[in-house]
Design a protein that fits this description.
By secondary structure, the protein is α/β, with parallel strands linked by helices. Helix content is 36%, strand content 13%. Bound molecules: alpha-D-galactopyranose.
Length: 413
């Protein structure tokens, strides 16, 4: 088993979680499952699958989602009366697991291709190649997408902030113009195929004793503004861009997205309320839901969803996967040893998936989509976070692209 040195991200996450753990009144167990795979400087992880072609036969039953590749027994069709079922992909997935995507899912998120670093690595140096390939696949399949993500502190290219002085009013106008141009261009290009936008990703601190992720937690957005005002501007520009294309079309589409939402929900709602109070439009809150088999409890997630609904927001489950490891048993990283994915482990994970979907179904009027962060276990960010090179098994299909017990467990209800 290989243990890698802590990445910059893991280190800051773990420090933040250690502090947060002391002040949290909920499950104090820190979790790395909300973390991100890419380096804090914006590197995109390569998560393309390496296995052979997908091995799930296209369904043959009566199609009900309108996609001829999806039989009645497909996951998407099983949930046709509940919510779209999405998966996050890169262009490489279209070579390795295209048949699975097309037969089981009916919603798509670009894993990296629509992030600022991917789309506009230099100012005005647009690169739409991968995002276009994914969007064209979605269009051809009649699937809608999540626009992920218009503003994030990670995978945000340095040029956004280049030459600017923090909290300088004139420089802030320049930064706002750069942000608006970015949002206008992305929204304009993909509005036809995107039915919900992650307008802002991860603005809330991992440290339970403060509200916002600031410069010390890697947010140049916060550092430049000296506040979380950038969140308001991102929502305003997103709404304006959609309305400029088609009046009324922004309705229901603008989301704030974050991880460990069970720990952050009050602060997230307060932030979204503040954006609304300033006249911005926030329609819903995304729970990434990078969860563990044993944390947070399904009841705690249910209580989190209920709070969001009570506060007047829609909910989406935006990046679901279930790691098998607990690497932070007492607040600091203790990399758990690699385990074997036995039939028993597979069943435990399947039971957890079944419980989660039972919860999600009970909120079908409020949950607008459920998206898995990937397709199969051979191509998951969790093979490298927080421990590089350790096999993890978080998804519905195994390394050989065969269905796992979890797939049956969430289909049979
Ligand atoms: C976060 C981001 C995603 C992705 C995942 C892990 O949750 O929102 O884009 O980077 O981390 O892969």
């Amino acid at each position: 088993m290989k243990f890698s040195p802590l990445s910059r991200y893991s280190l800051s996450l773990l420090l933040a979680l250690s502090v947060g753990a002391c002040s949290s009144t909920t499950d104090p167990m820190p979790t790395a499952t909300g973390g991100n795979p890419a380096s804090a400087t914006g590197g995109s992880p390569s998560l393309e699958g390496t296995g052979g072609a997908g091995q799930v036969e296209p369904g043959t039953g009566g199609a009900t989602t309108g996609n001829p590749n999806q039989g009645a027994d497909s996951l998407a069709n099983k949930y046709a009366d509940y919510f779209p079922i999405g998966t996050a992909i890169g262009q490489g997935h279209l070579n390795t697991v295209k048949e699975i995507i097309s037969s089981e899912f009916n919603h798509i998120t670009a894993e990296n291709a629509m992030k600022a670093q991917s789309l506009q690595p230099t100012e005005g140096g647009w690169n739409f190649t991968e995002a276009d390939a994914i969007a064209d696949f979605a269009r051809a399949e009649g699937m809608m997408m999540t626009g992920h993500t218009l503003l994030w502190h990670r995978q945000a290219p340095a040029w956004f902030f280049s030459g600017l002085t923090a909290e300088n009013p004139a420089d802030l106008e320049t930064l706002k113009t750069r942000l608006k141009t970015h949002i206008d261009t992305v929204v304009d290009r993909y509005a036809d195929v995107v039915d919900n936008w992650d307008v802002v990703n991860e603005a809330i601190s991992d440290n339970g004793s403060k509200d916002y992720r600031d410069g010390s937690e890697g947010s140049d957005w916060y550092a430049m503004f000296g506040s979380a005002d950038y969140v308001y501007w991102a929502f305003k520009y997103a709404q304006e861009a959609l309305e400029a294309k088609e009046p009324g079309s922004s309705a229901g589409k603008l989301y704030y997205n974050d991880y460990n939402v069970n720990l952050k929900v009050d602060r997230i709602i307060a932030l979204c309320d503040e954006v609304r109070a300033k006249g911005g439009q926030v329609d819903g809150i995304g729970l990434q839901a990078h969860v563990r088999v044993d944390w947070p409890s399904t009841a705690e997630l249910g209580a989190t969803i209920q709070k969001i609904v009570d506060a007047g927001y829609k909910v989406k489950i935006s990046e679901l996967d279930i790691t098998l490891y607990n690497d932070y048993p007492s607040g600091t990283l203790e990399a758990a040893p690699e385990i074997e994915f036995t039939a028993e482990v597979e069943q435990t994970q399947a039971t957890r998936y079944a419980e989660l979907f039972e919860l999600f179904r009970s909120y079908k009027d409020d949950i607008t989509s459920v998206t898995f962060w990937g397709v199969s276990d051979d191509a998951t960010w969790l093979d490298n976070e927080p421990v590089a090179g350790r096999d993890n098994y978080p998804l519905l299909f195994n390394d050989a692209h065969m269905p796992k017990a979890a797939l049956g467990a969430i289909k049979n209800f």
